[in-house]
Design goal:
Blueprint (H helix, E strand, L loop, with lengths): L2 E6 L11 H18 L4 E5 L1 H4 L4 H12 L3 E3 L14 H19 L5 E3 L9 H7 L4 E5 H5 L16 H8 L4 H18 L4 E4 L5 E6 L1 H11 L7 H8 L6 E6 L15 H11 L11 E6 L19 H9 L5 H8 L10 H15 L4
Parallel strand pairs: 1-2, 1-8, 2-3, 4-5, 5-7, 6-9
Antiparallel strand pairs: 6-7
Helix pairs in contact: 1-3, 7-8, 8-9, 9-10, 10-11, 13-14
GO molecular function: 1,4-alpha-glucan branching enzyme activity; hydrolase activity
Family: Belongs to the glycosyl hydrolase 57 family.
Keywords: Carbohydrate metabolism, Hydrolase
Protein backbone atom coordinates (compact mmCIF):
# COMPACT_ATOMS: atom_id res chain seq x y z
CA UNK A 1 0.00 0.00 0.00
CA UNK A 2 1.35 3.39 -1.01
CA UNK A 3 -0.02 6.86 -0.33
CA UNK A 4 -0.02 10.41 -1.67
CA UNK A 5 -0.16 13.67 0.27
CA UNK A 6 -0.37 17.13 -1.30
CA UNK A 7 0.72 20.10 0.79
CA UNK A 8 -0.87 23.46 -0.06
CA UNK A 9 0.33 26.82 1.23
CA UNK A 10 -0.46 30.04 -0.64
CA UNK A 11 1.80 32.01 1.71
CA UNK A 12 4.67 30.22 -0.07
CA UNK A 13 7.94 32.12 0.49
CA UNK A 14 8.90 32.19 -3.19
CA UNK A 15 5.50 32.82 -4.81
CA UNK A 16 4.44 36.47 -5.31
CA UNK A 17 1.04 37.21 -3.82
CA UNK A 18 -0.11 38.53 -7.20
CA UNK A 19 0.43 35.02 -8.60
CA UNK A 20 -2.06 33.32 -6.25
CA UNK A 21 -4.90 33.14 -8.83
CA UNK A 22 -2.47 31.59 -11.31
CA UNK A 23 -1.30 29.02 -8.74
CA UNK A 24 -4.90 27.99 -8.13
CA UNK A 25 -5.56 27.74 -11.88
CA UNK A 26 -2.36 25.88 -12.81
CA UNK A 27 -1.92 23.61 -9.79
CA UNK A 28 -4.83 23.31 -7.36
CA UNK A 29 -7.67 22.92 -9.88
CA UNK A 30 -6.03 20.48 -12.33
CA UNK A 31 -4.47 18.29 -9.63
CA UNK A 32 -7.73 17.95 -7.70
CA UNK A 33 -9.83 17.52 -10.83
CA UNK A 34 -7.61 14.87 -12.44
CA UNK A 35 -7.09 12.81 -9.29
CA UNK A 36 -10.77 12.81 -8.39
CA UNK A 37 -11.73 11.95 -11.98
CA UNK A 38 -9.29 9.04 -11.89
CA UNK A 39 -10.67 8.03 -8.45
CA UNK A 40 -7.21 8.19 -6.85
CA UNK A 41 -7.36 8.53 -3.03
CA UNK A 42 -4.97 10.99 -1.41
CA UNK A 43 -4.27 13.08 1.66
CA UNK A 44 -4.75 16.83 1.38
CA UNK A 45 -2.87 19.12 3.73
CA UNK A 46 -3.78 22.75 3.10
CA UNK A 47 -3.11 25.39 5.75
CA UNK A 48 -6.16 26.94 7.36
CA UNK A 49 -5.03 30.37 6.19
CA UNK A 50 -4.76 29.13 2.58
CA UNK A 51 -8.30 27.75 2.71
CA UNK A 52 -9.49 31.33 3.16
CA UNK A 53 -7.79 32.29 -0.11
CA UNK A 54 -9.17 29.46 -2.25
CA UNK A 55 -12.08 29.86 -4.64
CA UNK A 56 -15.43 28.21 -3.98
CA UNK A 57 -14.71 25.98 -7.00
CA UNK A 58 -11.68 24.49 -5.24
CA UNK A 59 -13.48 24.15 -1.91
CA UNK A 60 -16.35 22.39 -3.67
CA UNK A 61 -13.94 19.90 -5.23
CA UNK A 62 -12.45 19.19 -1.81
CA UNK A 63 -15.90 18.61 -0.32
CA UNK A 64 -16.75 16.22 -3.18
CA UNK A 65 -13.53 14.30 -2.53
CA UNK A 66 -14.28 14.02 1.18
CA UNK A 67 -17.83 12.80 0.52
CA UNK A 68 -16.64 10.11 -1.91
CA UNK A 69 -13.88 8.94 0.44
CA UNK A 70 -11.09 9.95 -1.93
CA UNK A 71 -9.70 12.85 0.12
CA UNK A 72 -8.41 12.62 3.67
CA UNK A 73 -8.10 16.10 5.18
CA UNK A 74 -4.89 16.55 7.15
CA UNK A 75 -4.22 19.17 9.80
CA UNK A 76 -1.23 21.49 10.03
CA UNK A 77 -0.37 24.82 11.62
CA UNK A 78 -2.71 27.65 10.62
CA UNK A 79 -0.10 29.91 8.98
CA UNK A 80 2.57 27.29 8.27
CA UNK A 81 4.55 28.24 11.36
CA UNK A 82 7.72 26.34 12.28
CA UNK A 83 6.38 24.86 15.50
CA UNK A 84 9.67 24.15 17.36
CA UNK A 85 10.45 27.89 17.15
CA UNK A 86 7.27 28.93 19.00
CA UNK A 87 6.30 29.08 22.69
CA UNK A 88 4.00 26.20 23.61
CA UNK A 89 0.87 28.34 23.90
CA UNK A 90 1.44 29.57 20.34
CA UNK A 91 2.04 26.02 19.07
CA UNK A 92 -1.36 25.07 20.45
CA UNK A 93 -2.98 28.24 19.06
CA UNK A 94 -1.71 27.37 15.56
CA UNK A 95 -2.93 23.76 15.89
CA UNK A 96 -6.36 24.71 17.27
CA UNK A 97 -7.09 27.45 14.72
CA UNK A 98 -6.27 25.22 11.74
CA UNK A 99 -8.39 22.37 13.10
CA UNK A 100 -11.39 24.66 13.80
CA UNK A 101 -11.37 26.02 10.25
CA UNK A 102 -11.31 22.55 8.69
CA UNK A 103 -14.12 21.34 10.93
CA UNK A 104 -16.18 24.41 10.02
CA UNK A 105 -15.53 24.25 6.26
CA UNK A 106 -15.66 20.49 5.72
CA UNK A 107 -17.41 18.99 8.75
CA UNK A 108 -14.53 16.61 9.44
CA UNK A 109 -11.89 16.45 12.18
CA UNK A 110 -8.42 15.69 10.79
CA UNK A 111 -6.73 12.61 12.28
CA UNK A 112 -3.24 13.20 10.85
CA UNK A 113 -1.05 16.27 11.24
CA UNK A 114 1.52 17.61 8.78
CA UNK A 115 4.42 19.34 10.52
CA UNK A 116 5.35 22.42 8.43
CA UNK A 117 8.81 21.77 6.94
CA UNK A 118 8.53 18.53 8.95
CA UNK A 119 10.04 20.54 11.81
CA UNK A 120 9.69 18.46 14.98
CA UNK A 121 10.54 18.31 18.65
CA UNK A 122 9.49 15.67 21.21
CA UNK A 123 6.89 17.85 22.98
CA UNK A 124 4.82 18.57 19.84
CA UNK A 125 3.25 15.06 19.78
CA UNK A 126 1.82 15.68 23.26
CA UNK A 127 0.12 18.90 22.10
CA UNK A 128 -1.24 17.12 19.03
CA UNK A 129 -2.56 14.23 21.10
CA UNK A 130 -4.18 16.71 23.50
CA UNK A 131 -6.01 18.18 20.50
CA UNK A 132 -7.36 14.97 19.03
CA UNK A 133 -4.65 13.97 16.56
CA UNK A 134 -3.79 10.29 16.15
CA UNK A 135 -0.69 10.50 13.95
CA UNK A 136 1.70 12.90 12.28
CA UNK A 137 4.07 13.04 9.31
CA UNK A 138 7.81 13.29 10.03
CA UNK A 139 11.04 13.16 8.06
CA UNK A 140 12.11 9.57 7.45
CA UNK A 141 15.79 10.39 6.97
CA UNK A 142 15.85 12.22 10.30
CA UNK A 143 14.47 9.03 11.84
CA UNK A 144 17.40 7.08 10.40
CA UNK A 145 19.89 9.67 11.68
CA UNK A 146 18.54 10.19 15.21
CA UNK A 147 20.93 7.77 16.88
CA UNK A 148 23.16 10.74 17.79
CA UNK A 149 21.23 13.59 19.38
CA UNK A 150 23.80 16.40 19.46
CA UNK A 151 24.20 17.88 15.98
CA UNK A 152 27.00 20.19 17.17
CA UNK A 153 29.13 17.18 18.08
CA UNK A 154 28.13 15.18 15.02
CA UNK A 155 26.53 17.17 12.15
CA UNK A 156 24.33 15.33 9.68
CA UNK A 157 25.61 15.16 6.13
CA UNK A 158 23.13 15.11 3.22
CA UNK A 159 22.54 11.68 1.70
CA UNK A 160 22.76 12.99 -1.89
CA UNK A 161 25.14 15.98 -1.83
CA UNK A 162 25.88 15.93 -5.57
CA UNK A 163 22.18 16.23 -6.46
CA UNK A 164 21.87 19.22 -4.12
CA UNK A 165 24.89 20.81 -5.84
CA UNK A 166 23.34 20.18 -9.25
CA UNK A 167 20.06 21.76 -8.13
CA UNK A 168 21.97 24.84 -6.95
CA UNK A 169 23.89 25.05 -10.23
CA UNK A 170 27.25 24.47 -8.54
CA UNK A 171 30.29 23.00 -10.34
CA UNK A 172 29.79 20.67 -13.28
CA UNK A 173 26.01 20.48 -13.09
CA UNK A 174 25.55 17.46 -15.35
CA UNK A 175 28.27 15.44 -13.63
CA UNK A 176 26.85 16.32 -10.22
CA UNK A 177 23.42 15.31 -11.49
CA UNK A 178 24.68 11.89 -12.65
CA UNK A 179 26.51 11.28 -9.38
CA UNK A 180 23.45 12.55 -7.51
CA UNK A 181 21.18 10.00 -9.20
CA UNK A 182 23.40 7.20 -7.88
CA UNK A 183 23.28 8.71 -4.39
CA UNK A 184 19.52 9.17 -4.64
CA UNK A 185 18.92 5.53 -5.57
CA UNK A 186 21.10 4.43 -2.65
CA UNK A 187 19.15 6.71 -0.28
CA UNK A 188 15.87 5.18 -1.48
CA UNK A 189 17.29 1.81 -0.52
CA UNK A 190 17.46 3.01 3.10
CA UNK A 191 13.75 3.86 3.23
CA UNK A 192 11.59 1.44 5.17
CA UNK A 193 7.84 0.96 4.83
CA UNK A 194 5.06 1.60 7.27
CA UNK A 195 4.29 3.89 10.16
CA UNK A 196 6.43 4.06 13.28
CA UNK A 197 5.70 4.91 16.90
CA UNK A 198 7.65 7.94 18.05
CA UNK A 199 8.78 7.84 21.66
CA UNK A 200 7.93 11.36 22.80
CA UNK A 201 6.39 13.28 25.72
CA UNK A 202 3.25 11.48 24.58
CA UNK A 203 3.91 8.68 22.09
CA UNK A 204 2.37 9.07 18.65
CA UNK A 205 2.31 7.19 15.37
CA UNK A 206 4.17 8.80 12.48
CA UNK A 207 4.22 8.33 8.72
CA UNK A 208 7.80 8.73 7.45
CA UNK A 209 8.17 11.19 4.59
CA UNK A 210 11.13 10.11 2.46
CA UNK A 211 12.69 13.10 0.68
CA UNK A 212 14.62 10.74 -1.61
CA UNK A 213 11.39 9.10 -2.81
CA UNK A 214 9.73 12.51 -3.26
CA UNK A 215 12.70 13.70 -5.28
CA UNK A 216 12.80 10.62 -7.49
CA UNK A 217 9.08 10.94 -8.23
CA UNK A 218 9.49 14.61 -9.15
CA UNK A 219 12.46 13.85 -11.41
CA UNK A 220 10.50 11.05 -13.07
CA UNK A 221 7.26 12.91 -13.73
CA UNK A 222 9.29 15.94 -14.79
CA UNK A 223 11.11 13.65 -17.26
CA UNK A 224 14.56 14.83 -16.28
CA UNK A 225 17.56 13.31 -18.14
CA UNK A 226 17.68 9.53 -17.65
CA UNK A 227 14.47 9.68 -15.60
CA UNK A 228 10.84 8.93 -16.48
CA UNK A 229 7.74 7.63 -14.72
CA UNK A 230 8.66 4.12 -15.86
CA UNK A 231 12.24 4.43 -14.57
CA UNK A 232 11.11 5.68 -11.17
CA UNK A 233 8.48 2.96 -10.94
CA UNK A 234 11.32 0.46 -11.34
CA UNK A 235 13.22 2.08 -8.49
CA UNK A 236 10.18 2.03 -6.21
CA UNK A 237 8.54 -1.25 -7.11
CA UNK A 238 9.87 -3.02 -4.01
CA UNK A 239 8.96 -0.16 -1.67
CA UNK A 240 5.62 -0.81 -0.03
CA UNK A 241 3.76 1.24 2.61
CA UNK A 242 5.55 4.46 1.69
CA UNK A 243 4.49 7.94 0.62
CA UNK A 244 5.11 8.22 -3.11
CA UNK A 245 4.56 11.96 -3.02
CA UNK A 246 4.44 14.08 0.11
CA UNK A 247 5.26 17.67 -0.75
CA UNK A 248 3.94 20.86 -2.37
CA UNK A 249 0.93 20.76 -4.68
CA UNK A 250 2.42 23.87 -6.34
CA UNK A 251 5.22 21.76 -7.85
CA UNK A 252 2.67 20.00 -10.05
CA UNK A 253 1.50 22.39 -12.74
CA UNK A 254 2.85 25.71 -11.47
CA UNK A 255 6.40 25.75 -10.06
CA UNK A 256 9.36 24.65 -12.15
CA UNK A 257 12.00 22.34 -10.75
CA UNK A 258 15.31 23.31 -12.36
CA UNK A 259 13.45 24.61 -15.40
CA UNK A 260 11.15 21.61 -15.87
CA UNK A 261 7.42 21.59 -15.24
CA UNK A 262 5.68 18.56 -13.76
CA UNK A 263 2.04 17.78 -14.41
CA UNK A 264 -0.52 15.51 -12.81
CA UNK A 265 -0.70 13.27 -15.89
CA UNK A 266 2.92 12.26 -15.25
CA UNK A 267 1.96 11.28 -11.72
CA UNK A 268 -0.95 9.21 -12.99
CA UNK A 269 1.42 7.53 -15.46
CA UNK A 270 3.74 6.63 -12.57
CA UNK A 271 0.84 5.09 -10.64
CA UNK A 272 -0.11 3.06 -13.72
CA UNK A 273 3.48 1.83 -14.11
CA UNK A 274 3.50 0.74 -10.46
CA UNK A 275 0.20 -1.06 -11.00
CA UNK A 276 -1.16 -0.02 -7.63
CA UNK A 277 -3.93 2.17 -6.29
CA UNK A 278 -2.78 4.39 -3.43
CA UNK A 279 -4.44 4.20 -0.04
CA UNK A 280 -5.35 7.06 2.27
CA UNK A 281 -2.41 7.89 4.58
CA UNK A 282 -4.29 6.88 7.73
CA UNK A 283 -4.64 3.33 6.34
CA UNK A 284 -0.93 2.70 5.96
CA UNK A 285 0.26 -0.25 8.01
CA UNK A 286 2.54 -0.03 11.05
CA UNK A 287 6.10 -1.24 10.65
CA UNK A 288 6.42 -2.33 14.27
CA UNK A 289 9.25 0.15 14.80
CA UNK A 290 9.49 2.37 17.88
CA UNK A 291 12.10 5.13 17.92
CA UNK A 292 13.12 8.51 19.29
CA UNK A 293 13.21 11.35 16.77
CA UNK A 294 15.58 14.23 17.42
CA UNK A 295 14.57 17.86 17.03
CA UNK A 296 14.83 18.17 13.26
CA UNK A 297 13.32 19.18 9.93
CA UNK A 298 13.47 17.98 6.33
CA UNK A 299 16.29 20.39 5.43
CA UNK A 300 19.29 18.58 3.90
CA UNK A 301 21.17 18.65 7.23
CA UNK A 302 17.94 17.89 9.17
CA UNK A 303 18.38 21.01 11.32
CA UNK A 304 16.37 24.21 11.92
CA UNK A 305 19.24 26.43 10.78
CA UNK A 306 17.49 27.63 7.59
CA UNK A 307 14.84 29.35 9.74
CA UNK A 308 17.11 30.62 12.51
CA UNK A 309 20.65 31.59 11.47
CA UNK A 310 20.00 34.29 8.84
CA UNK A 311 20.03 37.79 10.36
CA UNK A 312 16.51 38.61 9.19
CA UNK A 313 15.19 35.30 10.47
CA UNK A 314 16.89 35.76 13.82
CA UNK A 315 15.33 39.22 14.17
CA UNK A 316 11.88 37.95 13.25
CA UNK A 317 12.16 35.04 15.68
CA UNK A 318 13.18 37.41 18.47
CA UNK A 319 10.34 39.88 17.81
CA UNK A 320 7.52 37.48 16.95
CA UNK A 321 6.53 36.65 20.57
CA UNK A 322 5.60 40.32 21.04
CA UNK A 323 2.82 40.09 18.42
CA UNK A 324 -0.67 39.54 19.80
CA UNK A 325 -4.10 38.49 18.54
CA UNK A 326 -4.68 37.76 14.86
CA UNK A 327 -1.45 39.54 13.92
CA UNK A 328 0.54 36.93 15.85
CA UNK A 329 -0.45 34.30 13.29
CA UNK A 330 0.90 36.44 10.43
CA UNK A 331 4.10 37.13 12.34
CA UNK A 332 4.62 33.40 12.85
CA UNK A 333 4.22 32.46 9.17
CA UNK A 334 7.27 30.38 8.28
CA UNK A 335 7.40 31.67 4.72
CA UNK A 336 8.71 35.03 5.91
CA UNK A 337 11.70 32.94 6.95
CA UNK A 338 11.65 30.50 4.04
CA UNK A 339 14.37 28.93 1.94
CA UNK A 340 14.52 31.96 -0.41
CA UNK A 341 11.78 34.33 0.79
CA UNK A 342 10.54 37.20 -1.33
CA UNK A 343 10.79 40.63 0.33
CA UNK A 344 6.98 40.99 0.35
CA UNK A 345 6.63 37.75 2.31
CA UNK A 346 9.23 38.81 4.87
CA UNK A 347 7.66 42.28 5.16
CA UNK A 348 4.26 40.73 5.91
CA UNK A 349 5.68 39.33 9.14
CA UNK A 350 7.58 42.49 10.08
CA UNK A 351 4.45 44.59 9.44
CA UNK A 352 2.33 42.29 11.60
CA UNK A 353 4.82 42.66 14.45
CA UNK A 354 4.90 46.45 14.09
CA UNK A 355 1.12 46.81 13.89
CA UNK A 356 0.68 44.64 16.96
CA UNK A 357 3.28 46.71 18.84
CA UNK A 358 1.41 49.90 17.87
CA UNK A 359 -1.90 48.40 18.89
CA UNK A 360 -3.29 48.34 15.34
CA UNK A 361 -5.45 45.52 14.00
Amino acid sequence: MRALVFHGNLQYAEIPKAEIPKVIEKAYLPVLNELLKAEVPFGLNVTGYTLGLLSEEVLSLIRDGIETGLIEIIGTSYTHAILPLLPLDRVEAQVVRDREIKEELFGVSPRGFWLPELAYDPIIPAILRDNGYEYLFADGEAMLLSNHLNSVVKPIKPLYPHLIKAQRGEGNVYLNYLLGLRELKKAIGLAFGGKVTLKAVKDIEAVPVWVAINTAVMLGIGRFPLMSPKKVAGWLREKDDVLLYGTDIEFIGYRDLAGRRMDVKGLLELLEELGTEPCLPSRMRHSGKELYLRTSSWAPDKSLRIWTEDGGNARLNMLTPSAKGELAFLAENSDARGWEPLPERRLDAFRAIYKSWRGEE
